[in-house]
Amino acid sequence: MLRGALTLLVLAFSWQISAVTVKLTKIKSHTPLTTRQKLANIPVSGNIEPYGIYWSTMGVGTPIHQYNVALDTGSPDAIISQKGCHGCAFGRNSTIYDPTKSSSHRNISCNTPGIKCHSCVDKQYCMFSLTYETCDLKKPNAPCTISGPMFTEQFSWGGLHATTPLIMGGILNQTSDFDQFQEIHGIVGLAPHYNFGGHYNPIGLLHKDGKLPGSTFAICFGSKLSQGGKMTLGGVDMSLAAGPFSYTPMDHFPVVGVNGLSVGGHPVIGMNTFPKTGLDTGTNIFLVPTEIFAAIRETFQNWYCHLPHLCPTATQPKTLFDKGSCFKYSKAVLEQFPKVQMLVAPNTTLTMYPKDYILPKYTPPKAEQEEGMYCLGILDSGHKGFFITGDSFMVNYYVHYDTPNRRVGWAPVNRTACFN
């Protein structure tokens, strides 16, 4: 999920990644593993469609209650829906955080050193306001906004209880187009920036408190709801990988360089250089600027017009590349679509298979699916728009976000271990 207020990816796209030689070595913890410092594998729920988000459960408060929190590498902050929220979707999520029922809840005052207050109430209480994109599944460029008070609270994750309170935001106002909040209670930002200015995010706090061997994490996602996935806190669990990691440098989290893009092995037409791409677990599809979208479309239409609805005809001028267009495909036809591959710096090839970018037509979660209708999971973000590599590329990998070493690793996923 891209957080607009932070302009995390927008600013980073104009930066240059310097040449870095990455030696592929076995991952080592920054501190020796002890009885108290072990990796934590936590189960992940969600899918690319219809939910468009992946989440895990996090314990918050005293006494502790479990909440579904979206896993989001595109933002750094921890936020949770709060009792009394205007616009929050509480229908399928009855567990709502109530600050009056937690003995460890502490409001943050406006003059607290190191805290970034977006506004103050009565010159006393610190408030936040955040705007995201890729949160409305029908309009990925539309903004969604949440706001409310800031506070500190006790938390646990993966069975690990932090001793240092986490700075959080409580959602008291939410725009109605935040589709993912139909299934989740909040968002846990995984970007390694300090939470709300000056303080650690949850993984950083657990590492700081000696509960994890490191501040890195790794994730494997399933594309189907029945598969789920796993998230490893503190490092990597090689049992979830089906091969070695290949690493690419990050000049700024979570942005990596792109050296090429191809369709069925054919380089996309008319593109010699590419902007950097943001790796966002909170975005479910491949979101590309108009210039790249046009190159992808031209390459498909140059080589694959024999497949239905890729090229305009006299009787059907609309194609799969036209906004809002979805068509009926059989499984046999879908299997004929080519792979889409991206070469990330320095030399790692990432692959999307047809099932990853030709997606069932969106219907609200738990609504009746329109059988056999599919849409393109590669969307045009506009002229010089966002270039976001979302979950549709990640589902085939166990992805290691090695933030201390400014790199991200890709290993083929062990599907049996990850999706069990």
Explain what you see.
About 10% of the residues lie in helices and about 35% in strands. It has about 425 residues and is mainly beta. The chain has an 18-stranded mixed β-sheet that branches. Strands 17-20-28-21-27 form a five-stranded mixed β-sheet. It is globular, with a radius of gyration of 21 Å. It starts with a strand and ends with a helix.
Total strand segments:
30
Determine the number of helices (DSSP H or I, runs of at least 4 residues).
7
Uncertain segments: 2-36
Q: Please state roughly what percent of the residues sit in beta strands, choosing from under 5%, 5-15%, 15-25%, 25-35%, 35-45% or over 45%.
A: 25-35%
Spatial extent as radius of gyration = 21 Å
Which structural class should the secondary elements be placed in? mainly beta
Name the shape in a single word. Answer: globular
Main sheet, how many strands, which sense, barrel? Answer: 18 strands, mixed
Give the proportion of residues in helices. Answer: 10-25%
Q: Could you report the average pLDDT, rounded to the nearest whole number?
A: 84
| Ends distance | 26 Å
Q: Keyphrases for this structure?
A:
5-stranded mixed beta sheet; mainly beta; 18-stranded mixed beta sheet; 420 residues; globular; disordered N terminus
